[in-house]
Amino acid sequence: MLARITPGDPLGLRGLLAGRAEARHLLLDADAVHLRSLAYCARHARTCPDSARPVGWLEAQVEEVLDQWCAEEGRRAGRTEGEECSQTTGGVWAEFAGPLGLEPEQVRRACGRFNLLPDAERAAFFALVLDRREAEEYAVAAGRPLVELAREARRGLEVLLRASGDGAEEAR
Asked: 89 pLDDT exceeds 60?
């Protein structure tokens, strides 16, 4: 319902969310988090300072929503197949799952577990796997040993493989 009564992005939350999700190296459903952010801001509007553009307040709300989202998705990812859990059938998870030959719920759980990793591991995975940065160049820019960064990126990959049911044991 919120998506229907709030056309567009009147608060500019999409840009804030994208920037914070990228800075925190998170894998998430941007549309769902955007809707949750709109609802959260509406629910907490009374705490907003009286100013034309309450950017600082909006940033704080976005951070809180991202923290809550990651915690909830992490708990969801920890549930076993037999536990009560609504199944994910569409949206971004289905788009990711199709080419990988996985179920949307597997991808959602994998991303939920990934987002619980320490930021250093998520950052290394983003840089070396998703952004395909040169390993040596990234190590120099990060000021850290290459072997350490590679280990962190691999940990991110293993978490995604294990959570997706693809057997991270083969990756070892």
From this structure: yes
Confidence (pLDDT) at 87: 58
Nearest to 67 by CA among 21, 105, 109: 21
Q: What are the domain boundaries of the chain? A: 8-77
Please give the backbone phi and psi of residue 79, each rounded to the nearest 5 degrees, phi first: -75, 150
**How far apart are the C-alpha atoms of 9 and 123, rounded to whole Å?**
28
Cβ-defined contacts of 89-93 (< 8 Å, 24+): 91/29, 91/31, 91/32, 92/29, 92/30, 92/31, 92/32, 93/29
Q: What confidence category does residue 61 fall into, taking pLDDT thresholds of 50, 70 and 90?
A: very high
Give the span between the Cα atoms of 114 and 121, in whole angstroms: 9
d(CA 42, CA 35): 11
* Structure tokens that stand for 126 in this block: 């983003």
Read off the tokens for 39.
């609802």
The three-point CA angle 35-160-143 to 5° equals 95
State which amino acid sits at residue 96.
F
Residue pair 58/11 in contact (Cβ under 8 Å)? The answer is yes
Q: Render pLDDT for 7-26 as a digit per residue (tens, 0 to 9).
A: 778 888 999 999 999 999 99
Instruction: Please state, in angstroms and rounded to a whole number, the distance separating the CA atoms of residues 74 and 59.
Output: 22
DSSP 127: I
